[in-house]
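Review form for a predicted model. The reviewer records the input and the model, then writes brief findings.
Reviewer: anonymous (R2)
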Amino acid sequence: MWKKISKSVRNLLCLQPNRLLHRNQVLNGTLHSANLDVQWVSSHVCLEEIKPCMCNHSIKNLESVENGIAIEHSVGANGSFAHAVINMTGMLIGLGQLSTPYALERGGWVSAFLLIGLGIICAYTSHLLGKCLDKNPKSRSFTDIGQHAFGTKGRVLAATFIYLEIFMVLVSYTISLHDNLITVLSGMQIKVPWAKLSSSQLLTMMAVLMALPSVWLRNLSSISFLSSAGILMSLLIFISVPFTSIFGGVKPNHKIPVLQLHNIPAISGLYIFSYAGHIVFPNLYKEMKDPSRFTKVSIVSFTIVTALYTVLAFLGAKLFGPEVNPQITLSMPPHLLVTKIALWATVLTPMTKYALEIAPFAIQLEHNLPDSMSSKVKMIIRGCAGSFLLLLILALALSVPYFEYVLSLTGSLVSIAICVIFPCAFHAKICWGQISKPLIILNLTLVAFGSLLGVLGTISSSKLLVQSLRRRAHHSA
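Model under review:
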């Protein structure tokens, strides 16, 4: 029995070409959208981490049950160009919006060219994913493209980065929850005699424990409303900064440094994280009525998002200058109503993410358990695994409460690979001999550039994180 369970767990990364639409970052049906669909293509559940699409689908929801899991069958797709643009734009506006003003102020206004340049590169790599899907109509997900390019190794590598991103993003969300909860409930004191934890840590634990039961839910449709809640919270956060300037009396009169070259490697991770959405683009492509317009969708969407990020970055840096916080909401005047709304939105956002983010791992684990197990036992194992993962995320967030460094590390270690390196490498391998040499050189150059930026960013953010942990330990001693 235990050998079968062990084998099932090892199979978690061996994903099948189907999709669970769920996920993360912001207008979030972004990075996922307004409802949560589980589409069943074969007898296995595919755990491509995606955000539900906001576009109109001609999908007939034929609910059935297989192995105790509610499923839906895809009949077709009818996403228009406008809906695809809205959907992709929503997928891209995420947790990174909190940190772009901080990144610009630390890197200098010249670093805005890096932000814009990465936006252009990511638009190009999203175009490459569409071309890869053209080459193999059976490919429906990011991991499918990886398998088409490099076989099983490509699928496992892509899946590994997907799960790693989910985990690290949830840690970042929990740190954000902790930081903003302190401000929202400032003055509240909670003490537990036997626990050597601060009031803020105890409050964060209480908030996460409130969300814990959601990871036990077996029917994904019962938590689909969380995606819509995440969209609303993210929109409130995004518009809070200009409202602070317009109605809050805060003047954008701070001077932004020209260039601080030594900070560029670390902030590059923050910038690239802001464009992390490529995992879900294959699904968006497949949901379009006219997939040939996917490239235009990418160009329009990335243009909108890059413009919004750039304006937000400059406005936040000008409003708060050197005092700008890695999370822009923590820099806003606490007495303003718009600040209170933004803070509560930032606190509530992580609580809408846990069940959606952990669902892929939990469903795949349950599906790979031995058939001889009863439905009840499978549910218990799945719930316990999800609970353990959430508690591990909480422990890491409280142990490493440095939002900017964890987010930068996520961008440099994971997002740069998913957004730049993998799409270029997949396209070069799949289309080798069918594309011009200049295009091959461009792809390989971007792979090298992404690798260099990722390595430098990972080293820089890791050093800063370690230094912060050492200082914390020294102060605690």
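Findings: The longest helix spans residues 142-184.
Further findings: The chain is about 65% helix and 5% strand.
Recommendation: see findings above.
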